[in-house]
Amino acid sequence: MEGIFSAWGRILNGYTPALSIEITRECPLRCPGCYAYGDEHLGGGITLREVRDFKGQELIDKFLGVVDKHRPLHVSIVGGEPLVRYRELDAILPELAKRGIHSQLVTSAVREIPKHWHHIRRLSIVVSIDGLQPEHDARRTPATYDRILKHIVGHKITVHSTITRQQLIRPGYFEEFLDFWCAKPEVEKIWYSLYTPQIGEVSEERLRPDDRARVVTDLMALRLQYPKLEAPKGLLDVYANPPASPDECVFARTTMTVSAESSLNPSGFASIFSLQPMLARASAATTNRSCRMRAAYRVREAGP
């Protein structure tokens, strides 16, 4: 309950309790369907590849300046690939802990995660793993299974998996994935989200309405079999019937998204209440789990 009261206190005082910061635009991956590099991700007029990246002490100072200005309870650090800025994060993450802020680093684990980060209080590391090794490696090279398994040693992580249509190729696919990752001592919990296309997108990744229904049915059963799978019924109900717009999504309305762009405001970061980077984890966001959510709200499934 403490998390709920703290979040509502921030809201009533004019603050958003959660802050999501794109710390860099650089990423060695080229994942099919990645929303981050879409034309509308930053609200139109400029794309992430055109944004200037801050580095070094300038990045550290501006990052912490934004945090101190907006006073969030939770900061989600995304990219690009955040580990591209691991040196700056070495300074930023302990400062967030000192401020009593919960931080969440969302990474592909394409490079080694510094071992000493394991001892930083209030830090959670979320590793994106999209399916079993053949599908994941094809989609997310060079952040392959072999690299992930090597780089997570010595850490406790959350696995975040985005379900694409390629993962529906055979019955039992999700069980194989959960059996593999639940057996890893580094894995504390597993999150699933559903791939949802950008407006007008037609792709092999896109889930059709019947695919979405099948996935939700499967996860409803699997959540009872795998303790590490964090998939409460309320969350899956929202996956079955997602909000039609961010105005109907609690998570979208209580999270500010910030991108590394020097020209849009005096702080040196662009404060963007974006439609693109929020996913409908709305029911879960009404509990203290709202401080642990990160995914992508895009558009409601319109049909095949």
Question: Care to describe what's here?
Answer:
This protein is α/β, with parallel strands linked by helices and 304 residues long. The protein has one domain: TIM Barrel, CATH 3.20.20. The chain has 10 helices and 8 strands. It has an 8-stranded mixed beta sheet with strand order 6-5-4-3-2-1-7-8. Helix 3 links the parallel strand 2 and strand 3. Helix 2 runs parallel beside helix 3 and helix 7 runs antiparallel to helix 8. The radius of gyration is 18 Å and the shape is globular.
Describe the structure using short key phrases.
alpha/beta, eight-stranded mixed sheet, 8 strands, globular, 304 residues, 10 helices
The total of helices stands at 10
Looking at the overall shape, the CATH architecture is Alpha-Beta Barrel
Q: What share of residues are in beta strands?
A: 5-15%
Supply Rg.
18 Å
In CATH terms, the superfamily is Aldolase class I
Count of DSSP strands: 8
Shape: globular
CATH C-level label? Alpha Beta
- SSE class: alpha/beta
For the record, give the distance between the C-alpha atoms at the N and C termini, rounded to a whole number: 41 Å
Low-confidence stretches: 262-304
Any idea how many domains?
1
Q: Which H/E pattern describes the elements?
A: HEHEHEEHHEHEHHHEEH
Q: Whole-number average pLDDT?
A: 80
Q: Strands across the major sheet, in which order?
A: 6-5-4-3-2-1-7-8
- In this structure, how is the largest beta sheet organized? 8 strands, mixed
Give me the CATH fold name. Answer: TIM Barrel
What is the percent of helical residues? Answer: 25-40%
